[in-house]
Design goal:
Layout lengths: L30 H4 L8 H10 L3 H14 L4 H13 L3 H14 L4 H13 L3 H13 L5 H12 L1 H16 L10 E8 L6 H5 L4 H7 L6 E4 L2 E5 L3 E9 L2 E9 L3 H4 L1 H20 L3 H15 L3 H14 L4 H13 L3 H14 L4 H13 L3 H14 L4 H13 L3 H14 L18
Antiparallel strand pairs: 1-5, 2-3, 3-4, 4-5
Helix pairs in contact: 2-3, 3-4, 4-5, 5-6, 6-7, 6-8, 7-8, 11-13, 14-15, 14-16, 15-16, 16-17, 17-18, 18-19, 18-20, 19-20, 20-21
Length: 433
């Protein structure tokens, strides 16, 4: 999404690592679970924050400890399995995925993912059993069945390896086998199910989005990869309508030590994902891309005009409404900006960043109690949204409630230990706090 980050009291943090991507898999809460402590304090959310800050082993340890108390917690089992898979620990990841599959035995996409993990772990007989089980299912969709057949025969893995090697060589990237990665992991559980993304494997919507930017794309049967000379982005379905998204930097590249360039690429990739969700035509994409660029160039008036042009082409495009609202807020047209963000939530009620933008708008108008509610809503929707924690803390300071401010400050530090801290929040580091 196009979003120059705004922090209250006039302080800009520049590059923020949360970039608005949704957290690892979250299932609908029951009324009983909803009565538990807020999501930001639960083990699953804590593991997500550790993971996002690059601490993979500590995140797995948190999940392991929590699973001792809740051994059938699907969210944590699926999350741990997906992360270990993406980190190349296939055998270990498969153990978690297998336990999750026992809880949801009819989820053929999860079983397809489990079979893939087993295959790469060297357990081909078990992998074949999973693929055969998928093909025997009455509920399997045509695209998923074709992928399972190709994996069962081995042709899928052979074709994917050949295509990956050819494209990696074309863009000048090091070969994938044996390469050493630095990675951040996210789950995108909101992508609108589409045959061309979820089951057909063609990735047409992504391909159309990427071509104007001259970004090479490789689409496998159940994954989408976008290569750059220093980074690789990938979407892999891990369960029904749940996707793992990774951004990875090659060791030895500038992005290894300086994350700003990598995060800029991730934001562009994220922009494409939101376009896929919007379902809007390519013509609207071109205007939204213009709005994205103008926003990052700090030209909010031009960004707003491009977003309006996109909405003339696609009036129900929530992404364009978000871009317009963000730009109008930067122009201090706050009431109109708020209406745009409410229009986003009417279409995408799970979109945490719209709540964040509404919180900023309320705070800019000194409606601090309302701002607190919006920032809390943003955190409930996305426990790794760094800016929401920081702005929540700053709003508590404005309300004279420094005792409440220090908890979100601690959570922000856990998420991004090296992040800049505005002066009003430094008192949380004082002895006795």
């Amino acid at each position: 999404m196009a979003c120059a980050r705004r922090i209250l009291i006039g302080m800009s943090l520049g590059v923020i690592l949360s970039v608005g991507v949704a957290p690892l898999p979250v299932r609908a809460q029951s009324s009983e679970s909803a009565a538990q402590p807020g999501p930001e304090s639960q083990p699953h959310a804590r593991a997500q924050r550790l993971l996002y800050s690059g601490q993979i082993a500590p995140a797995i340890a948190v999940w392991d400890e929590a699973l001792k108390q809740e051994p059938r917690n699907w969210d944590m089992l699926a999350a741990a399995g997906a992360v270990l898979y993406a980190d190349g620990q296939f055998a270990r990841g498969a153990t978690y995925l297998a336990q999750a599959a026992q809880i949801t035995p009819d989820d053929v996409t999860l079983r397809l993912f489990l079979g893939t993990a087993l295959y790469f772990a060297g357990a081909q007989p078990q992998a074949k059993s999973e693929f055969q089980r998928i093909l025997a299912s009455q509920a399997v969709e045509r695209g998923t069945a074709q992928i399972a057949r190709d994996k069962l025969s081995g042709s899928y893995f052979e074709d994917e390896a050949a295509a990956e090697a050819a494209l990696a060589a074309k863009v000048g990237a090091p070969p994938a086998p044996g390469a050493s990665w630095i990675a951040q992991f996210f789950d995108v559980n909101w992508i609108k199910p589409r045959p061309d993304l979820h089951d057909g494997g063609s990735g047409v919507a992504m391909l159309e989005a990427v071509v104007p930017f001259k970004r090479p794309v490789f689409t496998g049967g159940d994954s989408i990869r976008m290569y750059g000379r220093s980074a690789l982005f990938q979407i892999v379905p891990v369960a029904r309508h749940r996707y793992l998204v990774t951004v990875r930097a090659w060791r030895g590249t500038p992005e290894e030590k300086h994350s700003a360039a990598l995060v800029r690429q991730l934001r562009l990739f994220e922009f494409f994902l939101y376009h896929v969700r919007s379902g809007s035509p390519k013509e609207a994409l071109q205007e939204k891309a213009k709005s994205f660029d103008r926003s990052h160039e700090d030209k909010p008036a031009e960004a707003a005009e491009a977003a309006r042009a996109a909405l003339r082409l696609a009036p129900d495009d929530a992404q364009a409404h978000y871009q317009l609202g963000h730009s109008l807020a930067n122009l201090r047209q706050l009431e109109t900006a708020a209406r745009e963000q409410h229009a986003v939530l009417a279409r995408w009620p799970d979109f945490a960043r719209a709540h964040f933008e509404l919180g900023v708008i309320e705070a800019m108008q000194k409606h601090n109690e309302n701002a607190v509610g919006e920032f809390l809503a943003a955190i409930r929707g996305d426990p790794i949204l760094y800016e929401a924690y920081l702005n929540l803390a700053l709003t508590y300071v404005q309300l004279g409630r420094i005792d409440k401010a220090c908890d979100p400050v601690a959570q922000a530090k856990e998420l991004w230990p090296s992040g800049l801290m505005p002066p009003p929040l430094k008192r949380c580091d004082e002895p006795g706090r």
